[in-house]
Write a structure and sequence with these properties.
Helix content: 40-55%
Strand order of the largest sheet: 3-2-1-4-5-6-7
Largest sheet: 7 strands, parallel
Number of strands: 7
Strand content: 5-15%
Structural class: alpha/beta
Number of helices: 8
Bound molecules: NADP nicotinamide-adenine-dinucleotide phosphate
Length: 248
Amino acid sequence: MVDLTDRVALVTGASRGIGRGVALALAEAGAAVAVNYRERADAAEAVCSEIAAAGGQAIAVQADVTDADAVAAMVKQVVAELGGLGILVNNAGIIADAYLTFMKPEAWREVVDVSLTGAFLCTKAAVRPMMKGRWGRIVNMSSDAGLMGDLMRAHYSAAKAGLLGLTKAAARELAGQGITVNAVAPGIIETDMTADMDDKRAEAMMSMIPLRRFGVPEDVAGLVVWLCSDAAAYITGQTISVDGGLRM
Ligand code: NAP
């Protein structure tokens, strides 16, 4: 069992899906958790209530991760209310399917902004309190799309591949401060993001997954928690897929 007692974690996009699963698992391991959301305050509060009911500590923190001032204020709030910050999971992300030739530049910017610029802004803001404690864990939620490229998702694939560059650069830069930076690349995980996949595509994808099932948020959360543990202290700059073997 991983023990994260006395650690403080911030998970972006934790009101739903994978982020929610990660927040619950970090709290179960003993961390105090800040549950970030953009719009759905009720969902974020429900995650906090679930954590509190299980004996853990959590606060909901609103911020659009693409807004530098909002992100800085959020990190300040987390440090003030939870007493520090040692773990950052850059999980917030969106999709907006479109073929490349029809993709609007605004859609490109929005998707890249949330996944990639958002991770940069949150990392930049969170590193200072981590340096103070001379300990930190940053986990970036990439995607198999960033490794393979995904149909109708040029922006998303580019942002998720960009996250891998950010992961490696940050890992090099922050290693001397006791901060590790790694990326997780989920395959197809059952969340709101994948809920409207049509049957034909679902069947085609399933046939390519050796473990013959789609993932659930808990599959991803287990790896994230482990990367935040002392057992993973000598692992940095890496990308690990959680995809049932899809991308071997
Ligand atoms: P999801 O169910 O759609 O949830 C998205 C979360 O991100 C929500 O909590 C949402 O907050 C938050 N969010 C969106 N834009 C934001 C912004 N600008 N600022 C702050 N929070 C924002 O997504 P998911 O499937 O759990 O995906 C989570 C991450 O895993 C994403 O980065 C995604 O790209 C990645 N991923 C997912 C899969 C998959 O198959 N599901 C596969 C590979 C990678 P609100 O609730 O307030 O809107």
